[in-house]
Amino acid sequence: MSGSLTFKVHRQKPELVSPANPTPRELKLLSDIDDQEGLRFHIPTIFFYRHNPKTYSDPVAVIRRALTETLVYYYPFAGRLREGPNRKLVVDCTGEGVLFIEADADVTLVEFEEKDALKPPFPCFEELLFDVEGSSEVLNTPLMLMQVTRLKCGGFIFAVRINHAMSDAFGLSLFLKTMCDFARGYHAPTVPPVWERHRLSATVPFRVSHAHREYDDMPVIATEHDSKGGNLVDRSFFFGHREMSAIRRLLPPNLVNRSTDMETLTSFLWCYRTVAIQPDPNKEMRLIFIVNARSKLKTPPLSPGYYGNAFAFPVAIATAGELTKKPLEFGLRLAKEAKSSVTEEYMRSLANLMVTKERPSFSLDGTYLVSDVRIFSDIDFGIWGKPVYGGIGKAGVTDFPGSSFYVSAENRNGETGIIVPVCLPEKAMQRFVKELEGVFSGQFVSNGGTKSPNKLMLSSL
């Protein structure tokens, strides 16, 4: 288990890194997609880089310098969030800067790999991205926290946490790729950043044209994450060619050909996670399949440099009984319908809903949220190449464990696949592992995709 690796991290005092040149002092409104309640938290990512024996460059110095140059172009990140009338968020572009920590750890990258610890949950994660006291508040605090930790081998770990109201994964990747541009010696970003948050703000009259069931006002009732299921356990699962082939065999061929790997894997996890949790058969289970809406916005198109939140939380809904008794294709069709529901009009409707419903958060009860963050595998600072691992630090966000993030990674055999961190109560995790072992061992080759998760469970226990 990854938790068996322990090491010490020596950190310098956190400092504020500000833009290299003077930047405008102004107020900038966030969009109505940005400032919904469900995005008012800080989200961490982490990157591991190997030593390059051909260079003596200090990663701390390279990254700090690239950060100061990047903040000239992304100067709102050097400011602070304030809240105006009707809880509207605005960036006060003060130029104060972002928090930066220089650190050293008495561990090598090989030790991480030997302990199978290059996947979430990472050992000593809180030491690799230190939560500076008071820094994780939403308002009036730095919008970004970075820590660069040198390793004994010459490699390093780069961790960054951002206020999610400022950017989504795509927006953060634009910021980090601009840092990579400056680290490589460029004098300007390859993709210039664009603010234009008005493009995703409500329009008068406030017309809500879609149902947006993801924001249903639901009573908080007992969920699968209550203590009755035991302590919560974090574990990562690798899905390569063999695993994806086994999942496809549970589906009719005609549906497999019309479904992406993401759709197939997401519906599979939703169904099998439900089996493992063993909820009441009549309980409503929800799948939120995060959709990047940039390609949907066409009149006019959203700029390639737009770094605000531009995604939606479409939801698929079914009872636990339906998900566990019906064939896997039932869940897959629901997931595909939810994903395809996101259109330009949907996004306009969503922005208007935020204003008319006072910026609600998406419903959590019975919800499993999935997001594809494989984009982080390309954060290449030049000298050290692409990260060995680049993505989310763990399953779950803040106090909501029911979320998973897809990360691109290699297994021990050098095969590229997808790592998915999952967080479940201990007993549910044991059942989940057993379920997956049953599918991947090839015992359950279905005939035309008629096997249901429940049938598989009965034969695998």
Distance between the termini: 24 Å
Structural class: alpha+beta
Assigned CATH superfamily of the largest domain: Chloramphenicol acetyltransferase-like domain
Count of helical stretches: 12
Count the E strands: 18
CATH class label of the largest domain: Alpha Beta
Fraction of helical residues: 25-40%
Query: Approximately how much beta-strand content do the residues carry?
Result: 15-25%
The overall pLDDT, averaged over residues, is 91
Strand count, sense and barrel status of the largest sheet are: 7 strands, mixed
Order of helices and strands: EEEEHEEEHHEEHEHHHEEEEHHHEEEEHH
**CATH T-level fold name of the largest domain:** Chloramphenicol Acetyltransferase
Estimate the global geometry from the Cα principal axes. globular
How many domains? The number is: 2
The parts where pLDDT drops under 50 for at least 5 residues are 221-227, 445-450, 455-461
Radius of gyration, CA atoms, in whole angstroms: 22 Å
Keywords: Transferase
InterPro entries: CAT-like_dom_sf, Plant_acyltransferase
Protein name: (Z)-3-hexen-1-ol acetyltransferase-like
Family: Belongs to the plant acyltransferase family.
Short account of what is shown:
With 461 residues, the protein is of the alpha+beta class. It has twelve helices and 18 strands.
Plain-language structure description:
Pfam families: Transferase. The chain has 461 residues and is an alpha+beta fold. The protein folds into 2 domains: 11-192, Chloramphenicol Acetyltransferase; 213-460, Chloramphenicol Acetyltransferase, CATH 3.30.559.10. The chain is 27% helix and 21% strand. The strands form 4 sheets. Strands 1, 2, 4, 7, 8, 9 and 16 form a 7-stranded mixed sheet that branches. Helix 7 packs across helix 9 (328-340), helix 7 packs across helix 11 and helix 11 (426-440) packs across helix 12. It is globular, with a radius of gyration of 22 Å. It starts with 8 loop residues before the first strand and ends with a helix.
